[in-house]
Amino acid sequence: MDVFLVPVGVEAYELYCEHVDDEPDAPEEIPAGLWARLNPRYVFTRLKARFHQVLVEAERERRRDHAANAGDGWLVRMKRRAMRWVAENIAEQRLLWNLRRHDEAILHHPDDMPASVADVVCRKQLTRDFEKHRFWLAVDSVLMLASGALILIPGPNVLGYFFAFRVVGHLFSIRGAKNGLDRVAWAKLPNPPLTDLRRALSLEPTARLREAEAVATRLRLDHLATFFQRTAPSQ
User: Can you tell me the distance from the alpha carbon of 207 to that of 26, in angstroms, rounded to the nearest whole number?
Assistant: First the structure.
């Protein structure tokens, strides 16, 4: 697994990886009947299955040729827009979700940064992510349970599904961050294009975007320029 230490400011970095197909966990047989619908274990199993289904659909939508579908109805367009929103908002968590399944990873870092410093920055970032997602897991779990009261209102409990989706995402992120800290064997690899990306931070917006796109092309990372523009503050 390739992980990139992307410079996004003065002494500021973000971990990044390109999309990796996130295979669902081994399916668990769910018994039929009311007990299976109420048992928390099987409820969470169904949530995970639906979570992966949404991720696959969102990633497919992000890769779709939108120009070829301009004639679709407004309802279809709204659904696709929602899926693109999901894909963009989960992009940063993809790293952690994929990391939970790996024992080895390569950390690509700017070539003017010592490997020992890159390792410290990586572990600091993973620790920060672990604490952040643990906090929001507690918050969203409470909100998910509270949204259960909306079951009395006719129609789908959209709010409940939203918080359930977030809970599953936080759980995967926590597992990935912890695995990255405790189990993953990290190899360090200096990466000159990432050093060029740091230099781009001082450029005016148009030139900075061009440089980010050039670096993304050199590294064969389709979405790096978008990630860089979103995470690196304007000068």
Answer: 46
Tokens linked to 231: 């995470």
Q: What's the rounded Cα separation, in Å, for the pair 57 and 62?
A: 9
How far apart are the C-alpha atoms of 146 and 142, rounded to whole Å?
Answer: 6
Separation of alpha carbons 97 and 83, rounded Å: 18
pTM of the predicted model, to two decimals? 0.73
Whether 225 and 213 have beta carbons less than 8 Å apart is answered as yes
> Could you tell me which residues come within 8 angstroms of residue 10 by beta carbon, excluding any fewer than 6 positions away?
201
Structure-model confidence comparison of residues 205 and 166, the more confident one: 205
Q: How many other C-beta atoms can be found within 10 angstroms of the C-beta atom of residue 109?
A: 25
Q: How far is CA 167 from CA 18, 37, 185, 209, 230, in A?
A: 23, 18, 28, 34, 24
Higher-confidence residue of 140 and 215: namely 215
